[in-house]
Amino acid sequence: MCFSSEMDQTLYFILLLIALCSVSECVQRQYHFINVRKNWTEAQRHCRENYTDLATVDNMNDMNELKKSVNDGRVWIGLQMTSVDKWQWSSGEPALYLNWGSGQPNDGDECAVMRNGKWHNLPCSNSLIFICSSSNNKLVFVNQMKNWRDAQSFCRQNHTDLVSVRNQNESQQIQKFINDSHISNDVWIGLFRDSWQWSDQSNSSFRDWAPGEPNNAKGDENCAIISPKSPRQWNDVSCNDLLPFVCHEGDFCLWFVLCPDKLILITENLTWTEALRHCRQNYTDLVSVHSVEMQNKVMNVVKRASTEAVWLGLRHSRILGIWYWVSGETVCYQNWAPGNGTGDEDCVSAVRAGAVQSGGDQRWISRPEHHKLNFICSRYEE
Ligand SMILES: *[C@@H]1O[C@H](CO)[C@@H](O)[C@H](O)[C@H]1NC(C)=O
Ligand SMILES: *[C@@H]1O[C@H](CO)[C@@H](O)[C@H](O)[C@H]1NC(C)=O
Ligand SMILES: *[C@@H]1O[C@H](CO)[C@@H](O)[C@H](O)[C@H]1NC(C)=O
Ligand SMILES: *[C@@H]1O[C@H](CO)[C@@H](O)[C@H](O)[C@H]1NC(C)=O
Ligand SMILES: *[C@@H]1O[C@H](CO)[C@@H](O)[C@H](O)[C@H]1NC(C)=O
Ligand SMILES: *[C@@H]1O[C@H](CO)[C@@H](O)[C@H](O)[C@H]1NC(C)=O
Ligand SMILES: *[C@@H]1O[C@H](CO)[C@@H](O)[C@H](O)[C@H]1NC(C)=O
Q1: Which residue's CA lies nearest to atom 12 of ligand 2?
Q2: How far is it, in rounded angstroms, from Cα 223 to Cα 204?
Q3: How many of the other CB atoms lie within 10 Å of CB of 16?
């Protein structure tokens, strides 16, 4: 095989990039500082019209990048308070695997410890020992009493972050580590809850609040800024303040090989069964929408559909009288249009399957499975 010298160079460049960056680092965000004063909502609109959205920050690398692009005053980022709070990991990952002790979590307390292998929530201001994760997923026990936030800072500065427990396997490894380190007291892990949400609906739980923040000092401090004070951590302020802001543009991929789309809209019109066969043969499966994050991704994809509804991997079993995902999950997260999803929409004949509306508020509707619709295949491995 032979290459022209130009191809040689391209190939060399690609190999160099593969060598230099892991996949996640290659998926970059570009930040744009807009030095015009607007309230948070107007800033959001400006970003959505001209870029992708107000800036999201996934990790410390993003934060360092962001700091380079802004001036030295107060600057909006895309983080806003909502009315729903959720448990998440300090490292920025959503908490999918849960391992609460009985009766946990209780209302109120917003940080979590590991106790006899199970999680319990306690006030974040308690002083406790903690476990950090360091590079290569190594665990580090820190035998110093700190509140959760200080423990987090310690881990971030000296290791990677407070430890995440993402599955049963990791839970066992951490329990073994706790046994081997002869720890018998409660230890902080990286689990916390808050009700802040990124403007682009990203599920990143990365937070870099300045000490004592957010404190809602004025009672209406529902939007986040980068504070002017070094080291430029975050502060909560009133969303009506007029401030410059940072937008971000795409999570763009350097090339498709590294980050192909995980959801694929197929604009052929097929029955639900044909659609299922198509997805299973050519991708992984018809899409399962078991979280808000996935629903958001689906809503993005269905905008381009040519039918008013688009098949999901959702099917009704008449015998059991339940809806289920073809990937095997039960339907916990739900987003049905009113009147749909009860299973008795149609007492006559047809077997029913689930679709998402391609317009409107993009809820799920129930359709006879022989209707012909566009559909979404997924490449996610369950
Ligand atoms: C957001 O959620 C998706 C799917 O649940 C996951 O693949 C992705 O890694 C999450 N994003 C972050 C920043 O953790
Ligand atoms: C990092 O570790 C050093 C040495 O133990 C300690 O003095 C320092 O305070 C730690 N950093 C943070 C942010 O706690
Ligand atoms: C559990 O973790 C260990 C150590 O990282 C790994 O070698 C093993 O394959 C994991 N097991 C499963 C089932 O993931
Ligand atoms: C840790 O120790 C407890 C009690 O000593 C024991 O029941 C448990 O199986 C141990 N866990 C691991 C993962 O070694
Ligand atoms: C699928 O159906 C829609 C709506 O009936 C139609 O506009 C579209 O052209 C059809 N697509 C194909 C590929 O037949
Ligand atoms: C897989 O994709 C090819 C190309 O789009 C298509 O012709 C084929 O019918 C698909 N397989 C199934 C089972 O639909
Ligand atoms: C299902 O939702 C659609 C869209 O909102 C609505 O038109 C339809 O009447 C609903 N079906 C039933 C049985 O209520």
Answers
A1: 154
A2: 16
A3: 10
Residue ranges of the chain that CATH labels 3.10.100.10? 28-254, 263-378
Cβ of 169 below 6 Å from ligand 4: no
Q: Kindly report whether the peptide bond that precedes residue 244 is cis, defined as omega within 30 degrees of 0.
A: no
d(CA 321, CA 135): 48
Q: Would you say 370 and 350 are in contact if contact means Cβ atoms under 8 Å apart?
A: yes
| pLDDT for the residue 292 | 85
Ligand 4 centre to CA of 192 (Å) is 25
DSSP category for residue 137: G
What is the percent of the chain with per-residue pLDDT over 70, rounded to a whole number? 87
CATH classification number, 28-254, choose in 3.30.590.10, 3.10.100.10, 3.10.50.40, 1.10.340.30: 3.10.100.10
Q: Tell me the CB-side half-sphere exposure of residue 377, using CA atoms within 13 A.
A: 20
155 CA from centroid of ligand 2 (Å): 8
Structure tokens at 139: 């665990």
What ranges in 137-271 are assigned the alpha helix state H? 148-158, 168-180
Fold (topology level) of 263-378: Mannose-Binding Protein A; Chain A (3.10.100)
Residue recorded with tokens 């990203």: 202
- pLDDT tens-digit profile of 344-362? 655 556 789 999 999 888 9
Q: Which helix (H) or strand (E) holds 26?
A: helix 23-26
